[in-house]
């Protein structure tokens, strides 16, 4: 089957747009989900297309169109690939040249409809964050589209792990109690943000509590929680490491000034 003829691409696209909302163009604005770099993507850095998929006995209205998008980040310090696919059912057609293409029905996704294979995590946490927190964060991002509830649960556990590790909080039964314990020890804006999103994924993280209460996770909520975790990593772990590095440099300078001058030999 031949790819469907390409369509026009908007001037700016987001990593979170559905592929079928994009088309093909010479260049477009894009933000790399790995390094966060805002850039303009040109032909050598991306490849996009559509493939019509059907068997001989597939009814015309059950054909599948698979759209794919590959973007290579042009940032020399990143160069990470972004790769996603989207699938929808539609009606099989043939153009004048005899090529098969599919006119999709937007209301008929195949399965989950779309999935991002790369990157497996957006803007990785720094090496200063605890390993367990980073693992939960990465897995939460990977399944954020497949299962927002499961993603939010993992993200919430990562948030709780950060609070416990960074502030050495012990003996508290819930994240709410742990946040209350650090209220006077962290930035008020960050505290308010954590309190605002702490309930997302709460039932999954604590199934023994409120078993009759179902809390739905709306589209985008898991991503907001992941963004908060990344922000806390920068505000807590990275900032602390940079501060300690500056202090060490100052101490090293002071020690060099205090050292006695080398003896002069005759």
Characteristic key phrases:
266 residues, alpha+beta, four-stranded antiparallel sheet, two-stranded antiparallel sheet, 34% helix, disordered N terminus
What's the total count of β strands? 6
Shape: flat
Estimate percent helicity: 25-40%
Query: So how many helices?
Result: 6
| Strand composition percent | 15-25%
Radius of gyration: 25 Å
Largest sheet strand order: 3-4-5-6
What's a concise summary of this model?
With 266 residues, the chain is of the alpha+beta class.
Structure description:
The protein has six helices and six strands. It is α+β, with helices and mostly antiparallel strands and 266 residues long. It has a four-stranded antiparallel β-sheet, with no helix packed on it. A two-stranded antiparallel ribbon has the order 1-2. Strand 1 and strand 2 form a beta hairpin. The longest helix is centred in the last third of the chain and has 38 residues. It is flat.
Show the helix and strand layout.
Blueprint: E1 27-31, E2 38-42, E3 46-53, E4 63-72, E5 81-94, E6 100-118, H1 131-142, H2 148-167, H3 175-181, H4 188-197, H5 202-205, H6 221-258
């Amino acid at each position: 089957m031949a790819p469907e003829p390409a369509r026009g691409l908007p001037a700016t696209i987001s990593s979170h747009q559905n592929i079928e909302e994009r088309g093909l163009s010479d260049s477009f604005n894009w933000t790399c989900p790995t390094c966060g770099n805002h850039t303009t993507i040109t032909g050598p850095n991306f490849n996009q297309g559509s493939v019509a998929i059907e068997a001989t006995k597939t009814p015309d209205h059950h054909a599948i169109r698979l759209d794919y998008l590959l973007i290579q980040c042009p940032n020399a310090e990143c160069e990470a690939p972004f790769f996603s696919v989207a699938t929808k059912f539609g009606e099989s057609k043939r153009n004048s040249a005899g090529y098969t293409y599919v006119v999709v029905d937007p209301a008929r996704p195949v399965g989950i409809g779309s999935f991002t294979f790369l990157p497996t995590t957006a803007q990785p946490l720094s090496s200063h964050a605890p390993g367990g927190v980073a693992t939960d964060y990465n897995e939460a991002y990977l399944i954020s589209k497949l299962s927002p509830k499961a993603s939010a649960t993992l993200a919430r556990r990562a948030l709780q792990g950060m609070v416990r590790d960074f502030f050495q909080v012990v003996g508290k039964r819930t994240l709410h109690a742990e946040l209350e314990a650090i209220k006077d020890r962290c930035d008020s804006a960050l505290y308010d943000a954590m309190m605002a999103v702490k309930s997302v994924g709460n039932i999954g993280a604590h199934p023994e509590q409120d078993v009759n209460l179902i809390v739905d996770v709306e589209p985008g909520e898991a991503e907001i929680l992941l963004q908060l975790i990344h922000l806390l990593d920068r505000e807590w772990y990275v900032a602390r490491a940079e501060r300690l590095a500056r202090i060490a440099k100052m101490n090293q300078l002071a020690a060099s000034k205090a050292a006695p001058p080398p003896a002069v030999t005759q």
